[in-house]
Specification:
The protein is α/β, with parallel strands linked by helices and 459 residues long. It is 32% helix and 26% strand.
């Protein structure tokens, strides 16, 4: 059967590409061997946000007395929480199925292997084989959790985020290996649910890619929340004992835990696809090499999402999928990674876009920064959520914005305005002139922009 486009992988890069291609008039097949939505929907973004929402709710209930509200004893029902997660994920998966059907995308359930630059063999769930032919192929197979075999991963006592999203009880003692985004989110969630969390990170600070001021601030908040953070530290070995796990640190110290969560990055799902046979070039890390048009080394084959080795975020995968499709359909589009917002769903949240202070200086900018504290926001005070700040990074010579970094309530929402400002090449003065509604958290963006010129009213 011949198609204009075959998409391999039904995650946020693949299904978005398939739907857009169908909207533009192409005959499309989408091949997926597991659940639609990929890691993000089934084992990443969405289920962790369900747990984060529960953690926020629990923290809010415990503080209800500050708002004049009396509550009784509060406890966590993990079974009910996991059932809610299942329902949320299920509704969204069903929504994708509906959208594919509505747009007449043919969904093929099975494992895809390239047999040539234009043909795909699909091993169906029942073991049968089906051959598909297309003018163009989009690879969107994503990534999976990286494992450190020496730490004894078994999916029970030593787990990854996949298993952490299906826990039946809250571990009394949780050791998290890796202080990146996933590690920090789980540290925040599980601490709120009642775990005694120890977070071990080999780099000098948690969130190594974030603005240093943000990572240090969040580390301080973690300490106040009862989370033990050990930076500049590695784990040499893990041994399983009756009733728990013992981890040996590089300095000889030992940490006892009931559960060890490995959170040290992702591995790319490029194996077994027949890429070498089709002539698709890979990089040193196994990533599929692509240009700005998302084209691989083989004409007619495109790649999007984590397997490209670019920025491993769901919204980047979706944007890449759209670029690939529009190029296939005769337009001329290129990916631009300069303005990519990212969010970390800790308590409080982190939102960031553009250059960090350190990156801006490394690129030769004369940097000027300004911070506005959430403590000075009337809305944050009313909400009782005053931890955090908005930090602006600007070019001291021109006043143009280079980056915005937010720690605080709804930082994941606030960063969208900052992304628009950077995309439109706005200066701090231009952003500050925009009238912001009062009382809102968004006013903190305006005040931080004013601060670049020393004109913040409420700081």
């Amino acid at each position: 059967m011949r198609y204009r486009i075959i998409v391999i992988g039904g995650g946020p890069g693949g299904y978005v590409a398939a739907i857009r291609a169908a909207q533009l008039g192409a005959r499309v097949a989408l091949v997926e061997k597991e659940e639609l939505g990929g890691t993000c929907l089934n084992r990443g973004c969405i289920p962790t946000k369900v747990l984060a929402a529960a953690a926020d709710m629990l923290a809010g209930i415990k503080r209800a007395g500050e708002f004049g509200i009396s509550t009784g004893a509060v406890e966590v029902d993990m079974a009910a929480l996991m059932e809610r997660k299942r329902q949320v994920v299920g509704r969204l998966v069903s929504g994708i199925q509906f959208l594919l059907k509505k747009n007449k995308v043919e969904l093929v359930r099975g494992t895809a292997v390239l047999t040539s630059p234009r043909t795909v063999k699909v091993i169906l769930s029942d073991g049968a084989e089906q051959e598909l032919e297309a003018e163009n192929i989009i690879l969107a197979t994503g990534s999976g959790p990286a494992l450190i075999k020496s730490l004894g991963y078994d999916g029970r006592q030593v787990i990854t985020s996949d298993e952490a999203l299906n826990l039946t009880s809250v571990p009394e003692r949780l050791l998290i290996v890796g202080g990146g985004v996933v590690g920090c989110e789980f540290a925040s969630i599980m601490a709120a649910l009642g775990s005694r969390v120890t977070l071990v990170e080999m780099m000098p600070s948690i969130l190594p890619g974030a603005d240093l001021e943000v990572s240090r601030y969040l580390q301080g908040i973690f300490k106040r929340q009862g989370i033990t953070v050990r930076t500049g530290t590695t784990i040499k070995a893990v041994r399983k004992e009756a009733g728990g796990v013992m981890a040996e640190l590089d300095g000889g110290e030992e940490i006892a835990a009931d559960l060890v969560l490995i959170s040290v990055g992702r591995v790319l799902n490029t194996g077994g696809l027949g890429l070498a046979e089709a002539g698709v070039a890979l990089g040193q890390r196994g990533e599929v090499l692509v240009n700005e048009r998302m084209e691989t080394s083989v004409p007619g084959i495109y790649a999007v999402g984590d397997i490209t080795g670019k920025i491993q975020l769901a919204h980047v995968a979706s944007a890449q999928g759209l670029v690939a499709v529009h190029n296939i359909m005769g337009e001329n589009r290129e990916m631009d990674y300069r303005v990519v917002p990212s969010c970390i769903f800790t308590r409080p949240e982190v939102g960031m876009v553009g250059l960090t202070t350190e990156q801006a200086r490394a690129q030769g900018y004369e940097v000027k920064t300004a911070k506005f504290p959430m403590m000075a926001s009337g809305k944050a005070q009313a909400m009782g959520e005053t931890e955090g700040f908005v930090k602006m990074v600007a070019d001291a010579r021109t006043g143009f914005l280079l980056g915005v970094h937010i720690v605080g309530p709804h930082a994941s929402d606030l960063v969208a305005e900052a992304a628009v400002a950077l995309e439109m090449n706005m200066s701090a003065e231009q952003l500050a002139r925009v009238i912001h509604a009062h009382p809102t958290l968004a006013e903190t963006i305006m005040e931080a922009a004013e601060g670049i010129h020393g004109l913040s009213i409420h700081a």
